[in-house]
Amino acid sequence: MKTKKLLKVVLLSTVIILSSCKKDSPTPLVVDGCTVEAPATYAFTDDGGVNTVAYDGQAARLATGKTVYEVLNANIAIDRLALDVIVDDANSKLFGKTAENSDNRSVVIDDLNGILNTYCANSAAYELGTEASEGTAGLKDGFQLDANGWEADQQFAKMLIGSLCLEQVNYDYLTKMGEETDNIDRDYSVPSVYTKREHYYDEAFGYVYGLDNNDLDAEILNGLLLGKYLNKHDGIDGKSGIDYRQRAYDAFKMGRQALVDNCPDELDRQISIINSSLSKVVAWHAQDYLAVAASAIGTAEFHHDVSEAWGFVYSLQFTKVNGAPLFSHSEVMSMISTLEAGTNGAWDLDATTLNNMAETINSEVDFN
Questions:
Q1: What are phi and psi of 133, to 5 degrees?
Q2: pLDDT recorded at residue 14
Q3: In this structure, what DSSP letter does residue 136 have?
Q4: What region does 322 belong to: left with phi over 0, alpha with psi -120 to 50, or beta?
Q5: Which residues pair with 145 in a beta bridge?
Q6: Which of 47, 53, 161, 176 is the most exposed place for a label (fewest CB within 10 A)?
Q7: pLDDT in tens, 136-177
Q8: Do the beta carbons of residue 348 and residue 311 sit within 8 Å?
Q9: DSSP label at 299?
């Protein structure tokens, strides 16, 4: 982790060395900039060589989300009280951090609770093996569908990708990188050795890479939420064709080093890359699942695909590109209403509706 300061000497009668961290000046006699050399891996230490990276809370929160997802994926009857014990929100803060900074948080939390309540109400039918059909909750080729044909585990997980992971990265932790957040004191949270600003940055990193058992490269292992889907975009696997995975990892590294070096312009530039890369991954999957679902109508896989699409569409309101969401809360909720409009919900959807919605997303997002 080395920083190459651009130092030039102005010889008048005295040698003056300027080393403030701003953009390079076009005037060759004055330098008011700094360049940043990022480390090969996301590894940062203090002057004594002690690790300063910590995101235990985020890793634990993602692990709780994964556990809840696995419960929703099991054909075992469960009531909401038992599910809430697993969530353990007082400690996990899984719900407490969801849509934490959104003006529409109450709507989001109501929708989240609605998914979980519906699942619990139907879980006995899943355990009994009741056959799903229009208006009847049960199993269809192994997929657990509610009476409207939605798969709760997919709605839950994909909804959290935006309302938890994206929201916390885009609208919480990476918005706290200004001078008002201390970046000097390493004792504010004894026995930690990181500054408050460094820790906020690492917590944002944790919402993407928290379940990865090896953060020494861009590949994300053991992911479920945002990290799982970012990992699909390595530029060669047939997804978007863009290496958002490497782009995001490099930006996280470069931004963290810029923070250490106190280079705010470079830090802001990397944060913008992070916001955009993660947001476009979510938008890409929203349109992709809509299109895939459109081609699978009449099959059990359709309900799986369209439930994933529902969650990714819901997550669009938490994207951030050029400082703003790709789709507003009202625009997203209008799309959700369209998906749910039929008397029998997903059972009533047609290919035209799904393809038109996918095209709406594609027309608004510059995937590059």
A1: -160, 175
A2: 34
A3: B
A4: left
A5: 138
A6: 47
A7: 999 999 999 999 999 999 999 999 999 999 999 999 999 999
A8: no
A9: S
